[in-house]
Amino acid sequence: MSLKRGVFLVVLGAAVVAPEGARAVTRDLAAVPTFTLTFGRSVLNQLTFDTYRTPFDELQTRPYNLLFSNIARQPNFGAWPGQQGSYARYVDGLIGNNGAANVNNNADAIEGTMIRRETGTIAWGLTAALLAGTLKSDDATATATFSDTNDLKAFDLRGGAAFQLGNSFVLGAGLRTVLATAGADSSNFESGVGGFNGNDDFEQLGVTAEVGVRQFLNTTSSWEILADLGYGSSTQDVFSENVDDTGAITDKFVSTNYDISDLSIGVSGGYNRLRSEGLGETEFRGGLLFSTRKLGNSDLSYTETAGVTTPDVTLLIQDPVTTTGLFASARSIFQAGETEVFLGARLGYDMISGGAQTDEAGTVFNDKIDDTALGLGLTLGLRQPLFRDKLRIIVSGHGDFLSAKTATSFEAGSTKDNVTLTVAQYAVGLEAVLANVTLDFAWLTGEEATVIPVDIGIPAGSRRTVQLDKLVLSAAVSW
What contacts 435, CB < 8 A, 6 or more positions away? Predict the structure, then answer.
């Protein structure tokens, strides 16, 4: 809905360094991203830079359109009454390429989507993804042992339903639950000498619910509004332990102990109008997102020796990290002969702020963050039939202008960075629409945001690929 928090991490994250002795607690808190296994965009949607939407996209973002989902892919942004087609079921399975790939130890998310139109007034859909990537090694000699475990487990479950209320209203609701755990643990011990244990563990739970309504003003125009509410909790524990020659733990140093809670609310809406002089559609959208994140514990870092706990970093006061995002967009699809031309523009503005006061071994430190990002994106592309309406080529280009600022203030000074960046991307793909099967084959030059909460080696926005890193294949079937 808005420019993601990750924008600041990618563009400016490496520039923030705390003065010696101080801990940037607020910056650490803001830097924890949200885990997701299922991309919120289909291959066609990413290929056209959020222009054309498949039934998968409707389930992820606008469940009230499930009643009109159609595999035939009309030349407009979303589904309309009368475009349902003759098939009541839509399946996008393992080859659908909507789940993350090569996350950890080359593990892929097993993901599938099912949408069913029960009657003319009720439809529902379900998306489920599961990921497991575990690598464990154990070595032992006559006097020494060593073990190392790198573990990631997660599931992502999304459901939605649509109901027709009268002749002009449709109501939709959706619910998503994501649970992910990641851990990198190691231990070594030598009899008569001692050893060392190290743990870096992360767990995140996220639940999002939304409800929306769309009213058809006439056969060619409609308006819609969607509200969503999200709650999340995350825990991050990084610690090390010293082991004596008998195998007993003598002391423990906890460098990071975070219990984080998130709350978000968003509202978006739009006006859609089908073109009266030919096939196509014009759409105007806007929205607001507000989220807050805070710590639920005060013992952020501590040391345990001989049963005695000594605080190292204690949270005294916090101003929760708040994110406010605004966006407005306009898009249009029109036909020039047999060619569909699509174009669009999106303007977004994000603000992130927060602060904390900590006691670090008897010294009080204050830190604050104040970040902003302004982004303007432009899209231009075409969708050209090659063989009637069965095979099409899509060529699209997208340009972004980004102006971002990060500011981190400490007790003894501050760090400020400003970046102005222009980025160009392009994509080329083939789309085949058969009687009840669709295929997308795309060459994407850009990917989505990182889908994991901690750095364990995943490429940003990795999708399931075919041979080359950025060649993507997707398939769906209806009956």
Answer: none
